[in-house]
Amino acid sequence: MPLIPEEPQIHESAQGPRATPASGRNAPTPRPVPGPRPAAPSRPGRPGPLRPTPPVQRTPRDGAPAKPGPSAPAGPAAAAAPQIQLIPASPEGALDAADEAVDLLLDSGRAPGDVLVITTGAQHPWAEHELSFGEASYWAQHDAGDDVFYADAAVASRAATRPVVVVAVNGGPGSAAGSALPLAHSRAGALLIVCGDPQTINSVLGAGV
Length: 209
Prior knowledge:
Number of strands: 5
Strand content: 5-15%
Helix content: 10-25%
Shape: globular
């Protein structure tokens, strides 16, 4: 009887992948193809996925110009300093220049009671005349506040603040202007007019008035 050749045995190692696992063995689990990683689940104590935040208001650092907000009302300490006007005049002509300045103020609508005139040298003729009736009568007119008041620098510290102060640097001691101008500056509410030598006045005003 002829021999029939035996079929060659096929070893498992030479076989391709099996569709089904061999008996007694588990097929290896196929690995997933690498791709985008899913978001990791939040852990206890850590925030979860971020939510969209509302738009942030732009600031000057972002490039948008900042708009100035309403400023707080200025208090008494922040009151504006009076405006200063200088009228060049010699010591002999300072009093006449002061009188002309007063006339212009009254013509422009200023009330006479708004104006105080201070002299550093000889007193104004009005002050001399009123003082002839006594100091009580003189200062009573000041307190009434209904007319221009003229005072010597030596007693002007007693005068109250008025919207406009006019100073006539018409001589007097060398230190007269140095003491009269700071005093006049403190008594002027809105405007200080100084009639005199510009160099002398600027040296005093530039020293901190």
